[in-house]
Structure prediction request, 165 residues.
Amino acid sequence: MSVVFAVGPLPPSGKTPVIDEAHSYDAYGHGLEWCGRLGIPVVLRRGIIVCMTLASADSRSGQLAARLPRSLGDLEGPTAGRVELPLHIAWSGLRAFDLGQPRQRMGLYRIVLNEGMREDLPRFLDAGLLVAQWPVLRTLVGPAVRTVWESAFAELAAAARPVAA
Prediction:
């Protein structure tokens, strides 16, 4: 078994620890024993753990905010065709997406919002598509992503509100 753990400082008292990444070459999940002894909650993706880092929810929001574009107008990604995401964004599962297929388009946006770096956002996201998809997309991303983006961009916060009848 080859397991590498990179653990940062534990968050202050009262803050929820968030495992940013958990990966392992051990398909049997023996790395979980270590997490269990420390009382660290773990979410598995496909049952595999490789490396682990720990961060507070506050630092996750700060990391997300640092990646934001200056304005939604900076998002000039493709609006049609086939898009292939690089491995540093889509390291597991589907990497090529047909933007003409609503579910695939939504999947691409969810992955880029969660995993993309600052320079990836304008390359793969389009402002118009992001705003149009936001009412549903916001339910597919985590609360930190949702809060950071809606706090930064009034257009997304407005798109999230239900329309009065």
Observations:
- Residues 4-57 form one domain.
- The first helix runs from residue 31 to 38.
- Confidence is low (pLDDT under 50) at residues 1-8, 19-29, 45-57.
